[in-house]
Amino acid sequence: IKIGNQYYIFKSLETYPNSDMQTWLVTFSSAEKPFEIFLYQRKEKLATFLRESHSELKSFKLSRQVGFDFVARDGLTIQAYVNLPPNEPLQSAADVSAELRDLAELGMIPVNRQRMVLLVHGGPASRDHYGFLNTVAALTSRGYAVLRVNFRGSVYFGKRLYNAGIGEWSRKMHDDLIDAVEFTIENGIANRSQVAIMGTSYGGYAALVGLTFTPDTFACGVDINGPSNLITQMEALPPYWHGLRRRFFKVMGGDTETEEGRRELIARSPFFLADRVKKPLLIMQGANDARVKQKESEQFVDALKNHSIPVTFVLFNDEGHIFRHRPNRLAEYGHFEKFLHECLGGEYEPFISGQYNENAIVHTSGLITKNDGISESSGGGE
């Protein structure tokens, strides 16, 4: 596409053509420059710049996103992305050993090992993409590297990768996440003692799995609308999802209809291993979530309290599965930013619960907080 006197190849774009296909509205996105919008005339092969959708970000330096592959413990090749903090100095290919040279040329090897957040996508029949993402921009601006993994069970990488995830919830799918973390540690990217796990929906489940099935791997975890008990999760599916029950049972590796199937779901549910949590945990939940009910978070919080394990639970009263209202979104970021600061030591903007007039109730149980107005008593709220 010609823009001015230059020709560009758009590798990441969406197009919205008119009825005769001669005039296109083209949006171009990259990790460092989100959503430029062009008007493209096919006949003239000419694109005219219209506007930026996030012009307020022009004054900020955004992080580069680097895609790479690694080999999981069973030999399967997995694709992943890493974003380093935008001002983090990098080692050149001449600075590193021959084994790290290719990664250094990609711009993946920092001078200093990083605090890192493993950000797990939902679905799990979804995938992480190249391009700008608000959460990644927020985390990298606070000094965290961000690792995102298209673990087995992810889509758009072919049937082999998707089928390799069938029946592997909390097992090989989780192994892929652990192997990705190990890859970053072995290659000088992440600091082993400063890795957090965070995600929404399946990503929230993965965070709970991380803190129960592998309790020594992560420094802390953030679960947003993640199921904790796969039996209660399946029993509470909304009616319009019942046609998908058999598929869910297949990909999870168990069912609620047989004794053996229920045993499998129990074995894959963090709820039944709540007593193994030893690292700080932040749980956020939408009260109106039809996919993952409020009970999924509350029962896990109650199990932690029964074992005298600290937890912070934030219930957003007017949100569903994905938080949409701007005050709540700001508060969501405020909560996890402050939590990660206390866990990993990254930068944060001071946040007081309620400062955005969000519709949320905060409960804590034994977690020491720092001047944020949140009650420290067991089950206390505000």
From TrEMBL:
Residues 135-346 form the Peptidase S9 prolyl oligopeptidase catalytic domain. It comes from the Eukaryota. Keywords: Hydrolase, Protease, Serine protease. Signal peptide: none annotated. One of its GO terms (biological process) is proteolysis. It is an enzyme of class 3 (hydrolase). Pfam families: Peptidase_S9 (PF00326). One of its GO terms (molecular function) is serine-type endopeptidase activity. Its EC number is 3.4.21.-. InterPro entries: AB_hydrolase_fold (IPR029058), Peptidase_S9_cat (IPR001375), Peptidase_S9A (IPR002470). Belongs to the peptidase S9A family. This is Prolyl endopeptidase. It comes from Pristionchus mayeri.
